[in-house]
Design goal:
With 421 residues, the protein is mostly helical. It has 19 helices and no strands. The chain has one domain. The protein is globular and about 70 Å long. The N terminus and C terminus are likely disordered.
Length: 421
């Protein structure tokens, strides 16, 4: 935090740095979650998901399953909702029409997302854009309604209810039936042997499979729920001056840690009960449903702990110095997100180095950490010379229909760049 800035700017600077650090942390988690399984953007043959048979790979898999999968896209979604609130407030202050301006911004993001999806089918932007338009229509609902709907969605309650109906009606947890084995074999072939053109054609037709996955897992609802939570956090001013809300953050962290403890105890007790009952092999659909519901609670709790804990750490000068390099990643989030796809496909795809399925989980983890460290260095170097990341600059320029200032010149230009953004 720049000590030369006035106090009012210092509060705002802290808020911006904290959100950028959170965004950088989310991008690391998203990168890791995809790198560990060879940057696959779709289902794989079941044997590729088999438990690791040695300690290092088992450790990498355990870290992925407990601390990463299903958490970091939620942090990113929360920050999208919070940023949405900040942007519409800025538009309102400048007396600019919210729907036209933000809608145009989303439309451009949608074009970027569609191009990205053609290259890599797990693109998240094509999910964010339609939900972003829905968020515009939800911007004026009451706080009470907002938090109730958000809670229902982040815990995936509508999907779990639909699964109960499906179990009673069809005896299946899956809402929309599909042949995952055939889909996984097809995607494996494309990643292993397909050309860039074959990958693009496959991904184009996989839009439907992507939607089915979003519905079956409830991720579509969870994502929108975290959008709403982020908007609620913006309304309540939790990140305007985090020091004022530190006691609340600490109370919530205690509650969340207790919730995670209960989840572990319930999971252990369930496992013991199943073992005692002599249940072996594939569990029943109802056990699968219960395990999924427990996992939803665990995922929301750990996601929230990440957000709250990093926010509190950013109030400590020592931790702020340690974490602040992540802010460079956060300020260039779109550029970094797209470049991570380039790196993943370059290493693993058949039209890259062709290492898909050839490397171990622990090696993939090491590659991920090394590449992300390089991205941190490059982003912080870039932002010393430029106001924005290259894709952010194009996005902002297209939104304003004018070329924005890009390269920093002269003393004090960094402050000018922050206020201009």
């Amino acid at each position: 935090m720049a000590t030369s800035l006035p106090a009012s700017h210092a509060v705002n600077s802290e808020r911006i740095i904290t959100l950028d650090v959170l965004r950088g942390w989310a991008l690391f988690g998203i990168f890791y979650a995809h790198m560990i399984y060879w940057y696959a953007g779709g289902p794989l043959p079941q044997d590729m998901y088999q438990p690791a048979n040695d300690i290092p790979n088992a450790l990498a898999l355990g870290v992925y399953l407990i601390f990463f999968i299903g958490k970091f896209f939620s942090i990113f979604s929360f920050l999208f909702g919070l940023s949405f609130y900040i942007q519409i407030q800025n538009l309102a202050q400048r007396q600019q029409p919210v729907f036209q301006r933000f809608g145009w911004r989303l439309l451009i993001l949608g074009i970027i997302g569609f191009i990205h999806h053609i290259i890599w089918r797990a693109d998240i932007l094509t999910i964010y854009v339609p939900l972003g338009f829905l968020l515009i229509f939800c911007r004026n609902i009451s706080n009470r309604t907002l938090i109730i709907v958000a809670a229902l969605l982040v815990f995936n309650i509508p999907t779990k209810i639909a699964e109960v109906i499906s179990l009673l009606w069809r005896g299946e947890v899956q809402l929309i039936s599909g042949d995952l084995a055939a889909e996984g074999a097809e995607y494996y072939e494309v990643m292993k042997n397909g050309s860039l053109w074959e990958m693009a054609v496959h991904n184009f037709y996989a839009l439907q499979d992507k939607l089915v996955y979003q519905i079956n897992t409830g991720r579509l609802l969870i994502t929108f729920g975290f959008f709403l939570l982020g908007m609620f956090a913006g309304r309540m001013g939790y990140f305007h001056n985090t020091a004022d809300h530190s006691d609340s953050f600490r109370r919530w962290r205690k509650i969340l840690l207790k919730t995670i403890g209960v989840c572990f105890l319930v999971a252990i007790a369930t496992s013991i009960a199943l073992y005692a009952a002599g249940v072996k092999g594939e569990p029943s659909p109802w056990v699968i449903w219960f395990g999924g519901a427990l996992m939803e609670i665990f995922n929301v709790s750990l996601t929230s702990i990440y957000i709250v804990s990093i926010t509190l750490l950013m109030l400590k000068p020592r931790w702020q110095r340690l974490l602040s390099p992540l802010a460079g990643i956060g300020k260039m989030a779109l550029t970094v997100y797209l470049s991570q796809t380039f790196l993943g496909l370059l290493i693993f795809s058949s039209f890259g180095l062709g290492l898909f399925g050839e490397t171990s989980l622990i090696l993939n983890t090491g590659i991920c950490i090394a590449l992300f460290a390089v991205q941190i260095l490059l982003c912080n170097w870039w932002l010393r010379h430029f106001y924005y990341g290259p894709v952010e600059w194009l996005w902002r320029s297209a939104t304003d229909l004018t070329w924005r200032s890009f390269r920093k010149r002269g003393v004090g230009s960094s402050v000018e760049g922050e206020t201009a953004g």
